[in-house]
UniProtKB/TrEMBL annotation:
It is found in: Cytoplasm. It comes from the Bacteria. It is an enzyme of class 2 (transferase). Binds 1 pyridoxal phosphate per subunit. Its EC number is 2.6.1.11. It catalyses: N(2)-acetyl-L-ornithine + 2-oxoglutarate = N-acetyl-L-glutamate 5-semialdehyde + L-glutamate. Its main location: cytoplasm. This is Acetylornithine aminotransferase. The gene is argD.
Length: 399
């Protein structure tokens, strides 16, 4: 374990950090300075899609670091164009805007949706329908989109223009759409909200509603994208494509990268001068993003993710059955897995940490498992054993 933090930290106290620091990582394993190995089924909150120190990513980053870091978007950035083209070739999209984070990708998505209607002579169409339990980021607009009171409190007037309806409630969404609506924004599977998949029929109905009303369907795939669900993007599971999609987390494999993908029609109004970023899409980030796609799009990789996920979920189902006082169900798609807890999830996560394994609490009293997509049978077996042992501890403690 690391040394205890000093009494007065120079950092904002915005995070309740566990008292452990890691020095290096390899694959799904993290190592403290004193050499303790931790099994990482959090992957930096679904970020380290290829685990730690993946040789192909290390090579791409170090090679680029010796050539060119940053030029700004005043110039051509060939690796940026190449990454955009690859995302276009493997999705519904025709165009991409790169940012540094998920929230910024969502900001670009929201602006793109509003500008679409503005350019078509409907400047009143600015409102966006969102869903309870959503998480879209921590900027002022994405907080308003997420609509969670606990995150909005104390930060002044809520950004106008978001109408929230109950989770996955199509009728409520339909009722919320009016003459000022620009778009419907939804996570195909809520991540922070507790690994809650939206039924495919609801996504299909939302698509039809958007088409009928002339409004845009926007997916937040910041957490679900880049292979996490066993598909490049989770919307492929339903076959219901959006007009705009926000990606981030796994896209940079640990390097900060976000992207807003859109169809030609949805992005047509985003012309020179309408939006921008200093850092977004810089050569370092793009070298890593391309390296991530080299691996994720390689033949067989996503099949491997699906196979691993099936194996993990089956084994977890047995753990759930064995500990009905701790766990209720296992759910999710691919390697975005939620264990719905009976005991408070914070206690369960702490018990798992006691076995040197990282899993991440989410809403709805769910423990999230977000392992790197490269985990193999050994890590799956280890994870299941550690979760089983942690559940045993909780039962023994009689808490
Ligand atoms: C993490 C997350 C975001 C915010 O991403 P940041 O990079 O933290 O800004 C937005 N939407 C979803 C679904 C996320 O999981």
């Amino acid at each position: 374990m690391s040394a205890a933090p000093s009494a007065v930290s120079p950092l904002f106290a915005t995070f309740a950090r566990a008292d452990v620091a890691f020095e290096r990582g390899e694959g799904a394993w993290l190592y403290t300075e004193s050499g303790d190995a931790w099994l990482d089924f959090g992957a930096g909150i679904a970020v380290n899609a290829l685990g730690h120190a993946h040789p192909h990513l290390v090579e791409a980053l170090t090679r680029q670091a010796g050539k060119l870091w940053h030029t700004s978007n005043l110039f051509q950035i060939p690796e940026q164009t190449r990454l955009a083209q690859r995302l276009v070739d493997h999705s519904f999209a025709d165009r991409v805007f790169f940012s540094n984070s998920g929230a910024e990708a969502l900001e670009a998505a929201i602006k793109t949706a509003r500008r679409y209607h503005y350019a078509r002579g409907n400047p009143e169409r600015v409102r966006i329908v969102t869903f309870e339990g959503a998480f879209h980021g921590r900027t002022l607009a994405t907080l308003a989109a997420g609509g969670q009171a606990k995150y909005l409190e104390g930060f002044g007037p809520k950004v106008e223009g978001f109408d929230q309806v109950p989770f996955a409630d199509f009728e409520a969404a339909k009722a919320a759409v009016g003459p000022e609506t620009a778009a419907i924004l939804i996570e195909p599977i809520q991540g922070e909200g507790g690994v809650r998949p939206v039924p495919h029929g609801v996504l299909r109905a939302l698509r039809e509603l958007c088409d009928a009303e002339g409004i845009l369907l926007v997916y937040d795939e910041v957490q679900t994208g880049i292979g996490r669900t066993g598909k490049l993007f989770a919307y492929e599971l339903s076959g219901v494509a959006p007009d705009i999609l926000a990606s981030a987390k796994g896209l940079g494999g640990g390097f900060p990268v976000g992207a807003c993908l859109a169809t030609e029609a949805a992005s047509a109004a985003m012309v020179a001068g309408t939006h921008g970023t200093t850092f977004g899409g810089n050569p370092l980030a793009m070298a890593v993003g391309n390296a991530v796609l080299d691996v994720v799009l390689a033949p067989g990789f996503l099949d491997h993710v699906q196979g691993t996920a099936l194996n993990l979920k089956q084994k977890l189902a047995a753990v759930v059955d064995a500990h009905p006082d701790v766990f209720e169900t296992v759910r999710g798609e691919g390697l975005l897995i939620g264990l719905k807890c009976v005991k408070p999830v914070a206690e369960v996560a702490a018990a798992v940490r006691g076995h040197r394994m990282i899993a991440i609490p989410a809403g709805d009293n769910v423990l999230r498992l977000l392992p790197p997509l490269i985990v193999g049978e050994h890590e799956v077996a280890e994870a299941v054993a550690r979760i089983d042992a942690a559940a045993g501890d909780l039962v023994a403690a009689g808490a």
